[in-house]
Design a protein that fits this description.
60s Ribosomal Protein L30, Chain: A; about 110 residues; 5 helices; alpha+beta; four-stranded mixed sheet
């Protein structure tokens, strides 16, 4: 199994554990409420969406990562296509950050 699939599997595990918020509104709410440990934005998200989350995550000091296609992220959390999601658990967030750093192409930014 490649590192990219491992990252998607971790997102799936976090979903099953109920430690994820998906979609723009829920992701934004999780960041602003201080519940988000990591934000993942799809590689296919619009420039506006990427900038909005990058600015918000910088302000609230939440790590952000650009990773995956919308359909991959959606499938990983058992939903339709998703452009953004927030990990609400420190352990899952740490594991995903390590995985993203291994991939290298994830454009991971640590605040």
């Amino acid at each position: 199994m490649d590192d990219r699939q491992k990252s998607l599997n971790l997102i799936g595990l976090a979903t099953k554990a109920g430690r994820i918020a998906t979609g723009g509104f829920s992701t934004e709410k999780a960041v602003k409420n201080g519940r988000a440990w990591l934000v993942i934005v799809s590689e296919e998200a619009s420039q506006n969406t990427r900038k909005m989350f990058a600015d918000m995550c910088t302000y609230y000091r939440v790590p952000i990562c650009v990773f995956g296609r919308k359909d991959e992220l959606g499938r990983a959390c058992g939903k339709e296509m998703r452009a953004s999601l927030a990990i609400l658990d420190e352990g899952f967030a740490d594991a995903l950050v390590k995985q993203m750093n291994r991939i290298g192409g994830s454009k991971y930014e640590n605040q």
